[in-house]
Design brief:
The protein has 10 helices and 10 strands. It is an alpha/beta fold. The protein has 2 domains: 9-207, Spore Coat Polysaccharide Biosynthesis Protein SpsA, Chain A; 214-245, no CATH class. The strands form 2 sheets. Strands 3-2-1-4-8-6-9 form a 7-stranded mixed beta sheet, with helices on both faces. It has a 3-stranded mixed beta sheet with strand order 5-10-7. Helix 1 (22-35) links the parallel strand 1 (9-15) and strand 2 (43-49). The two termini are 34 Å apart. The mean pLDDT is 92.
């Protein structure tokens, strides 16, 4: 990207030891940038490298991404570090184990109207099974009722800043709190959350690969138990959300 070009959209990718998944994500992003009606130069990609010990940072640089080094192992902090250096008027976030839809950036522009404060593309899984299907049905029911979603999450950079970004005191569920805060800000201005249509993000099933296709149901009782055991709860969070194997 020409240094003199001001991007419209800044895509932030938090990444910890993601050399396995990052190349495929960045290739999908390259395809989406090429199809963007404002041109590839209107999208910048920022990889927030969370103290990776593998080739994550090198891979990001080879794909012409801006790399921001982040030491603290808190996903909210990593997301915020990437957004803090964003040059676009719109900031978007996607996990490194995802594949974005070719129409992602046009879908963001179509969705982020004056009546919308924050949006998301939604997700599909990289593979399917009965356990995954049942889990996703319940997850989709929750997102519909709560009026939230996942995938590529996007908002105006000024609104990211206005709500203080992601809550860095949270080890988990920082994404839900971020959407809640933006929706609250939007209600004061007559704005709402919206789903971008026709541009669902493919997300990796690696948690299902690691913990089992029915783990949402088998782990839930353990999680409830850990709520009364702070040390056990912290171990569960670290193992499920922060350990990379």
């Amino acid at each position: 990207m020409n240094a003199a070009t001001t991007p419209r959209i800044s895509l932030v990718v938090p990444a910890y030891n993601e050399e396995r998944h990052l190349p495929a994500l960045l290739e999908s992003v390259s395809t989406a940038r090429a199809r963007y009606q404002l041109g590839a130069q209107a999208v910048e990609v920022i990889v927030a490298d969370n103290a990776s010990t593998d080739a994550t940072a090198r891979i990001a640089r080879e794909h012409d991404c801006r790399v921001v080094a982040v030491a603290e192992r808190t996903i909210a902090t990593v997301r915020n570090a990437g957004a803090a250096v964003a040059g676009g008027t719109v900031v978007a976030f996607v996990d490194a184990d995802s594949l974005v839809h070719p129409d992602t950036f046009d879908a963001i522009d179509r969705t982020l109207t004056e009546r919308v404060v924050v949006g998301a593309t939604g997700i599909t899984m990289s593979r399917s099974s009965m356990g995954i299907v049942v889990t996703m049905v319940l997850a989709n029911l929750f997102t519909r009722l709560a009026r939230v979603d996942a995938g590529v999450v996007f908002c105006r950079w000024a609104d990211w800043k206005a709500v203080g970004g992601y809550d860095q005191s949270r080890r988990i569920a920082e994404d839900l709190a971020f959407l809640r805060d933006l929706k609250r800000l939007g209600r004061s201005r007559g704005q709402r959350f919206a789903r971008a249509k026709g541009a669902a993000t493919i997300t990796s099933a690696r948690k299902f690969d690691r913990h089992g296709d029915w783990h949402f149901f088998t782990s839930s009782p353990l999680l409830a138990q850990f709520l009364f055991d702070r040390r056990g709860y912290r171990r569960f969070v670290e193992r499920y959300w922060y350990t990379r194997e």
